[in-house]
Amino acid sequence: MTPAKGNLVVAQGGGPTAVVNASLYGVVREAAARLDASAGIWGARSGILGVLNRRWMDLRRPDPENWEAIAASPGAALGSCRKMLTDEEAVEAVAVLKAAEVRHFVYIGGNDSMDPALKISQAAAASHYELHVAGAPKTIDNDLPLTDHCPGFGSAARYIAQAAIDLCADVRALPTPVSILEVMGRNAGWLTAATVLARRDPDDGPHLIYVPEAPVSAGRFLRDVERVHARQGWVVVAVSEGLRDENGRSLGGPRDQAAVDGFGHAMPGGVAAAMARLVTAELGLRARSEKPGLCGRACALMASPVDGREARESGQFAAAWAIQGHSGFMASIHRAASGPYAVEYRPVPLAGVANLERRLPPEYVNAERNGVEESYRDYVEPLAGGPLLRYPRLDTGWE
Amino acid sequence: MTPAKGNLVVAQGGGPTAVVNASLYGVVREAAARLDASAGIWGARSGILGVLNRRWMDLRRPDPENWEAIAASPGAALGSCRKMLTDEEAVEAVAVLKAAEVRHFVYIGGNDSMDPALKISQAAAASHYELHVAGAPKTIDNDLPLTDHCPGFGSAARYIAQAAIDLCADVRALPTPVSILEVMGRNAGWLTAATVLARRDPDDGPHLIYVPEAPVSAGRFLRDVERVHARQGWVVVAVSEGLRDENGRSLGGPRDQAAVDGFGHAMPGGVAAAMARLVTAELGLRARSEKPGLCGRACALMASPVDGREARESGQFAAAWAIQGHSGFMASIHRAASGPYAVEYRPVPLAGVANLERRLPPEYVNAERNGVEESYRDYVEPLAGGPLLRYPRLDTGWE
Questions:
Q1: Which terminus, N or C, of chain B has the lesser number of Cβ atoms within 10 Å?
Q2: Do domains B7-152+300-352 and B156-296+361-384 have the same CATH topology?
Q3: In the beta sheet, which residues pair with residue A238?
């Protein structure tokens, strides 16, 4: 193929994942293969802010060995931001890119980041500047529309499933019988639901899984805990940080201060701690909560090999398709087959992704609203992509 | 050697660790080598409760291959408890053991568990029943006196140091500039201090490390955060769950509800969430908190090989010394050499360990009370015993 002209800029937006730098490397490698040797391959520092501030880095510089190590590192190697663009800023960004003779722009990010990408593609079109704008998906929340799943999710799913196995191994032997594992996800329960992978035997935990898509009242939650405790004497619960009751209230109740900051604003997280307090207060059971939080999306040790490969490939696809002259799209992952698992990459319009959320479909949630269906295990298992450590038991055969 | 007579009982008390079953296996293996083939090697279910309730399991049954897998599993394979014994219950326990012709009793546990062990050894002596009572140390808190360190600690230290590295990789690229990592430890800061292993380069985190042995006021904490933030734009803090100010109050202030349950009782944990709220309220900086909690002591993937070996060997030492006729002692670890690291096992009196805490010595805490000295790194590094995953950076060379 004839090497393409024009410089390329890549940036990373939103919260990092364990594999977001694999996407970055995919973009850079594909660009190096397709662009003219004189074309720049630049990284913008701190996402779209780096475009507005003209902060570039030459990404042709690191050698492939360094790149392999960077691709396997958590965190956003270029830095990130949560900046949304006004229409004026989008015009300004296009002016900056035009002045730098940039013809290809790839933004690696989630639904919030796809909005600036969309606005820039529209502003470029309006000013008749030929700029090829691509999105590369990235989010542990797995909440982007028009894609089977999102790079970053599989690794976070693997981490939290293993954490649930480990936690259950600890709690089943303990005098503190209730432990509540808080999982990231304000509006979407995909990641929390992935803890179903920890379950294999009938008494395995998590015994109760609550997602934001299926609100539960405090009373219902307490009855669930009571029932599981009566059956087997210990309870592990997985809950999305964004869980609310049917009226949109925190399960900690109106007087719960745990999820409110000094200004009275809702703070992320805290729901598991509030639920543990509730269990102790209402059921008289010792309860505690765990919240690995960011540690779960930054754990390279638990990165899913499948997820890492797809992150890189979706970055490559985004770069390739942009360099071929397309704009205003995101690279999406299509599950082409389930047995064995296989995917294809396809372009989908940024307008169908930007600012939109894809929540967990109701059919994956059980009728009792306290667990997920086995069909969800089939969905998530290949994405977690690595064997989980399971432990033998010595707790049978007591005289 | 002549095989010894009498049955042996082993039990596990207190919170589990990633290597507590390696200690169990050490006891069982040593007992099998030293006891007469007709002697029973029994596990008591749920710690000392299993003795009182006469719940035994035949530990000669699992084959060595199963034992290797069990030894590498987190959680207490026999079940655990936090039961303290009254004098009457200690007499009762001795009667149960005598009736079952048990001559050797090994209790794997921390300072709370060494108290029942001591009481049982005293009750046996008072009733002139020859019972050999041994303690095998176990605690992620590392707070047992008369030992250089405790099995379980090294693995928890390795886990939390890696979690700190991962968290820093995530936060350094983020628009949320402050993250506070809560580490287990109500009274002793050994484990929190181990996050120093995450630091290598000058700007590596955790930038601030707070331990219960060095109380800090909210004002001092906020000034520390402000200073680090001004210098480099992001801050990672490691804090012991038991941190208090100079007046023994939570840093969340008197109106902080986060650490109080429905009865108004203090709940474990919550200090990091309270400190994050404080940072947002007083400094106007976005802040969040992470709390891996029990996940950190149950993560077999991050178990330290050194710790696992010492857990097994201290169990072996406890069993061997008991079977040789000694009683009322705990197996302690003596650091025989530092370069290269080597240990010896020695008996220390249970009376010097039971219910006593060894806190972090002041010389390991820096003068500013917000970090630990390099001498502590030398202490803890060999215990964590495995390489930590470090990540390259791409954040230099910006134009």
A1: N
A2: yes
A3: A181, A209
